[in-house]
Amino acid sequence: MRLPYPSLCLVTDRRRCNGRSIECVVEAAVAGGVNIVQLREKDLPAAELYSLALRVKALVGDQVLLFVNDRIDVALAANVDGVQLGENALPVEAARRIAGENLLLGRSVHSISGAMEAESQGADMLTLGTIFPTASHPGVRTGGSELVREVAASVSIPFLGIGGIDASNAKQVIKEGAAGVAVISAISTAQEPALAATDLCNTMRAAIVPQAAREA
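Given the sequence above, the corresponding structure tokens read:
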């Protein structure tokens, strides 16, 4: 399995869906162009997270890659595509011993050294943050475009930028070398999640330099 390019990942948060269900937001987001969904409901018990994963999987089919945050057991049981390992989750190499080649392993990183370590341990992809200021992590130090550029020069595996990203700045993240972006509020809290996703997709595509131009 390979990440689509450019990747638009919806990271779920049922508390930021404006009263809608996760399934409702996911369905609209996928219709608008989201091609990766990460279920990030950290406080859900395993049984409820497993049930949610099955419902979302049935909803999206093979249209998108479906990841579960941290819970390798739930990801394997639900037969999804991958698991996103947070900074306090198992090391990538330990996760690989459990998952084998059955799951894509993503790792959340916040620095060049963290990105390089995750790659060396066998991560398939990274989520890099926090890129821009975000209401979900107030006061957290942000790396901006410079961090994206430095990580792109330091690792060969694909990575997504996360943190304060919307249609106004996604182009910047792609231009600096990210394979895509991951968002929560930019889609989940939007009045029309499908339209918000489409705007993000169009913004990212506009940043992709044609191969011929890169080689000129």
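The longest strand covers residues 104-109. Try to locate this feature in the token string yourself.
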